[in-house]
């Protein structure tokens, strides 16, 4: 079982280098001022240049207006856009058409009823990412370090590559991959020592654990992971 591993919320050269050296398939940059992982526009070109084609870059935005979207895409030149807000299916399709970039839509999950929205988003997004639904007092729409019941995704086949996020770390990624078939795993707070402070050691440990768990998993992934 092959999967993709994404390290999200990278904001320094050192930790970006660690993610690349560890063999991450996707490296994520957050452009959202409220996040402790926020990367300002002026810092983007140097970080993106550092990737050098060793992984695909993902730009995470939250409910961007057209001006923010245009400026961020110009600065980060991402391979994939990740929309992590309350974007409607219509807005997702509009952003995809406007930017010409593949879009991964994050969908918050707490119970089975939350999956009712999957078909509408699968019709317009290239990938889906399932994350734990924020609690009412959470300041951020994601990256809160909280898992959800992964078994809710069992048997789900939206016809798009699926990634799992929310509370993953090197200690539990094998449980997640044993519980549900997936195309990829996404980690942010699970490789940090404090909010926004990535640990190279934790990054390496997570990638190793994810690769080992994927190799040991007997089930095939949902759909085939396709390059955008």
- What is the helix fraction of residues, given as a range? 25-40%
Uncertain residue ranges: 220-228
CATH architecture assignment? Alpha-Beta Barrel
Name the strands of the widest sheet in spatial order. 1-2-3-4-5-6-7-8
* Percent range for β-strand residues: 15-25%
Number of strands: 10
Q: Can you write the helix and strand succession as a string?
A: EHEHEHEHEHEEHEEEH
What's the average pLDDT? Answer: 90
Tell me the count of domains.
Answer: 1
Task: List strands and helices in order, with pairings.
Blueprint: E1 4-7, H1 13-22, E2 26-30, H2 44-51, E3 56-61, H3 66-76, E4 80-83, H4 89-99, E5 103-109, H5 118-122, E6 127-132, E7 162-164, H6 173-179, E8 184-187, E9 192-194, E10 197-198, H7 200-216
Parallel strand pairs: 1-2, 1-8, 2-3, 3-4, 4-5, 5-6, 6-7, 7-8
Antiparallel strand pairs: 9-10
Helix pairs in contact: 1-7, 6-7
Would you give an account of this structure?
The chain is an alpha/beta fold. It contains seven helices and ten strands. Strands 1-2-3-4-5-6-7-8 form an eight-stranded parallel barrel, surrounded by five helices. It has a two-stranded antiparallel sheet with strand order 9-10.
List keywords for this structure.
228 residues, two-stranded antiparallel sheet, eight-stranded parallel barrel, 10 strands, alpha/beta, TIM Barrel, 7 helices, disordered C terminus
Summarize the structure.
With 228 residues, this protein is α/β, with parallel strands linked by helices. Helices cover 30% and strands 19% of the residues.
